[in-house]
């Protein structure tokens, strides 16, 4: 006899949204989370792009989801999922201390943003340092900002920010971008985008208000240091999907994302992937919630 109808790995927006839909469908959901609930959104000071909510902190948004899940009767355990195996039509989900039997699994483990690793970077998150231009860019209207990275995301961020920011410094450690030619063409000729190439960010300085005031870059060829006053820094040097525990049961792409389309179905029957951990173009709060709903309803059809 199974322990739960659906086990959900991850208590971010996608995972908690999935739990809500599972419970409302009359099924039983267990959410397993190795860290704290909420995912990356919990570090965002002000969310302005979620439909129907003008302003809310990431912490309050995540807490509201978490409380809603509990009120609906879903179980949340703070245990990291270490693996999934199939037992006929049912699945066995293993943590360090327990194994749970269920009919369907939803993987919603999200991603971790690659960070610069500078001493005060963590303290400045939400105070000038961001890892999502489309989430936080509007807060820097008519201000000077910087983008760090050389891939598609970095160039897309720079082009996006150039529409309403006063100036955008695009900082890359090489002299050529690894982004697609189409993305490079978009930033060419943009008068308010300045390229800072062959350079890395080596220090972050905060003002008296505790917010980011400037960045220090170091030229990799000459060693020359430069201080650039900016109000915002958008780090776009990649993401790390947390999917290695599932590599033996679902297909991953070359970057480690779970291969799944808009139906959230993976290569394994009865296992679904929702949110930032799956292959997709748009990774936003709204799309994470939508993925959770789609995955939950599909999983419930199997129970």
Task: Provide a concise account of the structure shown.
The protein has 303 residues and is an alpha/beta fold. The protein has 7 helices and 17 strands.
Structure description:
The protein is of the alpha/beta class. Helix content is 22%, strand content 27%. It is built from seven helices and 17 strands. It has helices spanning 13-24, 58-71, 121-124, 133-136, 152-162, 181-187, 285-300; strands at 4-9, 29-32, 75-77, 83-87, 90-94, 99-107, 111-113, 129-130, 144-148, 167-171, 193-196, 199-206, 212-219, 225-229, 232-235, 239-241, 271-273. Strands 1, 2, 3, 4, 5, 6 and 17 form a seven-stranded mixed sheet that branches. Helix 1 (13-24) packs parallel to helix 2 (58-71) and helix 1 packs parallel to helix 7 (285-300). It is elongated and about 60 Å long. The mean pLDDT is 94.
Strand content: 25-35%
Number of strands: 17
Shape: elongated
How would you classify the helix and strand content by structural class? alpha/beta
Radius of gyration, whole Å: 21 Å
Separation of termini? 12 Å
Uncertain residue ranges: none
- Rounded mean pLDDT score: 94
Oligomer classification: single chain
Instruction: Note the total helix count.
Output: 7
What is the chain-wise order of helices and strands? EHEHEEEEEHEHEHEHEEEEEEEH
């Amino acid at each position: 006899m199974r322990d739960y109808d659906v086990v959900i790995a991850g208590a971010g927006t996608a995972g908690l949204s999935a739990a809500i839909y599972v419970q409302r469908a009359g099924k039983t959901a267990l959410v397993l989370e190795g860290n704290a609930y909420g995912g990356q959104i919990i570090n965002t000071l002000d969310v302005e792009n979620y439909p129907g909510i003008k302003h809310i902190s990431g912490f309050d948004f995540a807490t509201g989801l978490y409380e809603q899940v509990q009120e609906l009767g879903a179980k949340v355990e703070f245990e990291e999922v270490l693996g999934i195996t199939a037992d006929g039509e049912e699945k066995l989900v293993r943590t360090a201390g327990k194994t749970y039997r269920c009919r369907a699994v939803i993987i919603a483990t999200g991603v971790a943003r690659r960070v610069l690793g500078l001493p005060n970077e963590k303290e400045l998150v939400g105070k000038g340092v961001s890892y999502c231009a489309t989430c936080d860019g509007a807060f820097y209207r008519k201000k000077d900002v910087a983008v760090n990275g050389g891939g598609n995301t970095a160039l897309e961020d720079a082009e996006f920010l150039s529409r309403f920011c006063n100036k955008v410094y695009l900082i890359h450690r090489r002299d050529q971008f690894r982004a697609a030619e189409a993305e490079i063409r978009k930033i060419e000729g943009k008068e308010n985008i300045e390229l800072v190439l062959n350079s890395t960010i080596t220090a972050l300085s905060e003002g008296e208000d505790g917010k980011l005031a400037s960045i220090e870059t170091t030229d990799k060829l000459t060693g020359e240091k430069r201080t650039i006053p900016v109000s915002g820094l958008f780090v776009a040097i990649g993401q790390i999907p947390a999917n290695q525990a599932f590599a033996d049961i679902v297909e991953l792409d070359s970057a480690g994302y779970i291969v799944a389309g808009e139906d959230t179905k993976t290569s394994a029957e009865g296992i679904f992937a929702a949110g930032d951990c799956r292959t997709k173009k748009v990774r936003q709060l709204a799309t994470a919630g939508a993925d959770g709903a789609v995955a939950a309803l599909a999983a419930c059809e199997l129970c």
